[in-house]
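SAMPLE LOG
Freezer: B-3
Tube label: C17
Construct: single chain, 244 aa
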Amino acid sequence: MNIRIIVPTYNEAENLPKLVTALFSLPLQDLNLLVVDDNSPDDTGKIADRLAQANPGRVDVIHRAGKLGLGSAYIQGFQWCLEHGAQAIGQMDADFSHPIEKIPVLVETLAGCDVAIGSRYVKGGALDERWPFWRKALSGFGNFYARTILNLPIRDVTGGFKLWRRETLADMPLERVKSNGYVFQVEMNYVATRLGYRFKEIPIYFADRRWGKSKMSFRIQLEAAVRVWKLLGLYPDLPRLIRR
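STRUCTURE (predicted):
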């Protein structure tokens, strides 16, 4: 299986080389990486180019003109992976908050579903134990809020650690997905659910980033709160788009 993991980056110079070493230490010979860099001022893009030169055929880089957002980075990455023959397409952060050792488990899980999710909110999953109560409560409420409004059959609707079947992404109207920030994850889950695709969640421990600065902001949180309601009216035709 040709597996391609997409990692959007903005100022991840400290993390990216460590991430590549960790990914390619996994027992998955067909695991490859696509870095989508938003013109990071800390030279993450140049570091990504050097990693691509050192790992020909296993690391590719998309350079974008500026900080265009998480959602558009993933959409561009999905389209690139589909064009280049990836059979399974993954999403993860560059900051080691997602447990890299769980990628083989996601690959195994994908054999029985259309989307495999690393979940903080199924039995056995957890948030960083160092997080204060208010931060855990905010994360939990954000999931409950989106899950309830959109009636999603997924426990972790805002998580960004996933593996998609090629066929699933190829059938989705990616050009219509416009959310940025973590609400992008919600919109993708909503669209896939409306199309009847099957999800399976595996428990993960979500750790706080080790190096670098968090990209979360009040603006991103506000966008998510408003955008969730808008999603209800954006895809009335989706049931007619099922091609299975």
